[in-house]
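Appendix B, example 12.
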Amino acid sequence: MVKKYTITGVIILVAIIAGVILLLRGCLAGYDERSAISPALFFEKGGKGIVFSIVKYGKATSYKSNGGSTYKSLSTNYFIQANDAETGELIDNKKIKHNSDVKFHPVTSMGSGNGKAWVFIGELLAYDPFTLEKFADKEIIELKNPQLKGKMPDEKTYYVYNNATDEILITATDGVKYSLSTGSLVATAINEADIAKSPLEAKIKELKKNEAGLEDKYKAYYERFRAFNKLYSEKKISYAAYIDSGRNFNRQQDSISTMKRNFNNEIRDLENLKDADKNRQRQVEDMTRGSKSYSAICTAVDTFNGKWYGLLSNADLEKPEGRFRYRAVYTETARNKMYTAPVRIKDSTIKTVELLIGEPQQLNDAVYLQGGFLLNKANALPVHTKNDDGFIICYREKVGNEGNIMLARVDLAGNTKWTFNTKLKDLTDWIYTGRRLIILGNDNKEISSGEANLLLSIDMQNGKAVMHDYFKNAMRKE
């Protein structure tokens, strides 16, 4: 009998302890934090779109309130997560590492090479975005490439994702550089001089080599001319032969001068193109890092189908720009309207096209407060909508940094197809897929800058949106 009561007592005690733990966890759960780390990645297969993100989950272990402020301790884990791009619904998530297992930061998504999500969470990792199955990690890559055994660094700075080639440049611990294929996982040692050589840089190098070869030709022609001079002074050739040699040298000299001038002009044009390309790539890279200021996500002007389009205020019209250049939208109180103008090429003989703008003509009376054309994060150029040519205009609901960002889809005649209030002061991240505009944003004060608690997916046809709240791990209604 005593034994029976003892067992019953133990069961009751365990139940009480379990109840206290559950109650405590229930109280602490209200202080948990969950957010997505930008940038997100988009994938599409068989007509199904996926938004892949890294989710930071801080599980509260204790908290204390004092003087209106709450202090809490968190145990942080990193997950990967897949959401349906059409519905916003959570498809699946998977725990990857605890914060204690991550020696170096940042934790971030890197790229989407060969249909895999490449991330850095304490090490280089890759996952199938549709199944969340692991495709690559340090061990798998080293097994595939014995030359990297024990030489893969722990810090993100030694891994650079090349968006142009979908390869990853790895600087091993011994300083040797490798190019890792995101498809085969084969790492190839590369020379320092071959790193990140664009087609433009290769062409410039070839032209400079050919230009240097002209100098050797000139020297050979000149030495031959001097030899004829010497032969004539020694009366070994006729005066006619001497004159003929001089004329021949002059022709060769003129030909080389023309070729050098052509090489110089082409090199100059290609250098300008290279600088513009590098500037564009730098802008693309900047757009993948953290939260963006409003002026960094849009531009005041663009060209489309051979015409110039601009969002201008009355002040802009008083000092019109005759030459086309992209420029940010800074003035918070600017009441911009949409204009169009003809454009023409200033000089068609050079590769770096310079466009001259004609007289702007106002399209309609629609006003966009601090309005600008939304940039496509993939190329740092304005979004050009499909099916019905046009733009996505972003503007403020009211003046000041507290004004929500508004979006409007407009066609080339300035007609508005739909408008949408994001109810966000800034965009943490955004992806234009053609059919949808996917936005990550932060409207929760518990979340750090550069992280997001909200996923918006906007249908480009009708402007209707679905919302997933990362913080609550649930869908949100408007």
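Residues 239-287 form the longest helix (49 residues). The longest strand covers residues 48-66.
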